[in-house]
Amino acid sequence: MTALALLAFAGNSILCRLALLPYDPTTDNLPIDPISFTSVRLLSGAITLMLIVLVLNRSNTLNNKGSWLGAFYLFMYAIAFSFAYVSLDTGVGALILFGSVQITMIVYNMTKGHKPNAIEWFGLLLAFCGLIYLVAPTLSSPSFIGFLLMLMAGVAWGAYTIAAKGVSSPLLVTRTNFIKTVPLVIVAIVITWFFSGFTLSTKGVMFAVLSGSLASGVGYALWYAVVTHMKTTQAAVLQLLVPIIAALGGVLFAGEEITVHLMISSSLILGGVWCVVLSTKILSKATN
User: Fold this and answer.
1) Cβ atoms of residues 249 and 13 within 8 Å
2) How far apart are CA 239 and CA 94, in angstroms?
3) Averaging pLDDT over each range in 62-66, 226-230, 249-253, 280-284, which range is the top one?
4) Alpha carbons 154 and 30: distance in angstroms, whole number
5) Which residues contact 5 (CB under 8 A, 6 or more apart)?
6) Coil, strand or helix at 167
7) What is the pTM of this model?
8) Where are the domains of the chain?
């Protein structure tokens, strides 16, 4: 179940990238615009999570479950995520996303009084160096606008995770937060209708539905089912596998390449986060 959940998280990046690839007459790929992709993804995710809650015979009341702030963070993550993948490769986007999520949560803990030890400071410095190196001007560096958008998506997802921390029913909260994004989705659709219009294709909508229902709805349900059996550090380290899975998916399904630039930046970012997450265990072993 853990493996399936991690595949689902990586699947979001792969499906979004495939849906937003520009039109290619050789492959007959037809794109979908980011607003439409986000809207279909969130709506199908809400429907799927509602069905999962019903099947599991959980309480279906919305009272005291979820929040409008959580819904806002979720919407901001989803919309920035979609726009970022217009110009980012699959693996690069997933690396920026999960790296910035972990860094956001680490920085938040520092603001709440946690004093980092030497290994944590080293890990943070390593991760930040990795992010800087990732956008350093080379032939393989990603779009800077795409980088900023995915960084925003990561911060929003980190804030969403922090806001939901400690809730008794994360599946119910996630279901309700998805439902509460609907008004924001409607506003985004209306604005897009007046100013730019939509780009829709059967394939693009299909990818968005799969992203919302399977990769998001079912993926989150699986993750919340298994994460209760893990330590926080185990869950954090396991999520570091997602960018690697996504990069391989980009190679297999989107014809992308794994460059030396990406490998070095991935090692720095993921290695830095790994140091922070496991710093306590590393120090305890060193002292023993």
Assistant:
1) yes
2) 11
3) 249-253
4) 27
5) 219, 222, 223, 226
6) coil
7) 0.84
8) 2-287
